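quick one if you have a minute, typing this from the bus. below you get a single protein, a line of residues and a line of whole numbers that encode the local backbone shape. could you go over both lines and see whether the tokens make sense for that sequence. anything you notice is useful, everything is just below.
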Amino acid sequence: MVLAFTVAYFVVTSRVGYKFKGSILLPEKQEKATVYSGKVYGHNIDITVTEDKTVTFEYEEKTYGPYIVGEDITAIPEDEIHTTGIKGVEILDKDKMFFRGGFIKLNMEDINILLYSEDESWDNVMVHFIGSDGVEYNTDGSPVDVFAPSAENIVELVYSPQMTYKGDWLGWFGGTLLAVLTAMEILFADEIFRWNMQFLIRNVNKAEPSDWEIFSRYVSWTVMPLAALYIYFTGLTV
């Protein structure tokens, strides 16, 4: 387990790319464009971002865009016009207005973009609910298109795509610790038993484990590896 997951963690954390809908898309530089490729919800996807600020999302069966991004100071909401660092932006989906408003980079280390639409609403808040049919809906009752990009995705890809990777080595340390403890319990079961008994009885070397003690060992040897697997997999998916 330790060896297999060590390899798995190295493989997963070495795939540095743009995180989109829980998946890592690997970038490839092309002439006057960058293409981010990978799988989202089991479907192949290519996101093309050109130097002239157009973004196209291509799934196996769907295409979104091209979205054309342009800066316009008049798009900034009146209440935010004096906010430090805010930029006005409008996004066209072909010839239709997709978003118009302003955006701010909240910080530079962990890029987080906050959007304000022109009608002065905070665009990052999206309220969805799951219907009785299991389908996700918007507050207006229309089904949510899980493949569709948001204005935040588009702005981030054009101005400051954050490169990251999946996986957290803390999960590897936690899983490895449990795996090592399990191995120690298996290899030194009788020694541990007698160590614990020396505080309770005399002639501890003559003590023999009961059926309940043997059963408890097998339960522990089953539960601990399963817990280690859970921690390993959790660390790989964050």
Remarks:
- The chain has five helices and twelve strands.
- The first helix runs from residue 2 to 13.
- Residues 121-128 have pLDDT under 50 and may be disordered.
